[in-house]
Amino acid sequence: MNPYRYMMKIKYNEEAKAFIESLRKLGKTEGFKVRVRGSGPRAPQNRDDGLDLRHFDQSLPLEHATHVRLYLNSSKADGEGYTGSGWIGLDWRSQLA
Questions:
Q1: Which of 2, 5, 79, 83 sits CB 3.0–4.6 Å from 74 for a disulfide?
Q2: For 38-72, how does the pLDDT look when each residue is reduced to its tens digit (9 = 90+)?
Q3: Angstrom distance (rounded) from CA 83 to CA 60
Q4: Three-state secondary-structure class, residue 68
Q5: Does 93 reside within a domain?
Q6: What is the pLDDT of residues 29-40, one digit of tens each?
Q7: Which residues neighbour 5 within 8 Å (Cβ) at sequence distance 6 or greater?
């Protein structure tokens, strides 16, 4: 099983920052880590601020991101033998406070 699991893509704003923080707190107790990767337009004609960010190939720095992709990483190197509650990728929304 792949230990890196794509969870969702969300608009990056203050509400998203609070959501990510609560998910990270939950991960400390459940045995997973949250990886956040920035997304958004890179060409200056597509950006409101006119910056040219085409030199960022894989992901944008969060300060320039309009959206973020969230990944849940298993605490084990190979993803096998997960010792948490086992809800990752199933019903994660119900686990958030």
A1: 79
A2: 988 877 777 777 777 777 777 788 888 899 999 98
A3: 33
A4: strand
A5: no
A6: 888 889 999 988
A7: 71, 72, 73, 74, 88, 89
82 in a structural domain: no
Tell me the two tokens of residue 12.
Answer: 């990056």
The number of C-alpha atoms within 13 Å of 27 and in the hemisphere containing its C-beta is 17
Tokens of 13: 């704003």
Which amino acid would we find at residue 92?
W
Instruction: Enter the tokens of residue 55.
Output: 């030199």
Please indicate, yes or no, if residue 52 is contained in any of the structural domains.
Answer: yes
Q: How far, CA to CA in Å, does 93 sit from each of 20, 25, 75? A: 12, 14, 20
Q: Which domain holds residue 51?
A: 4-77
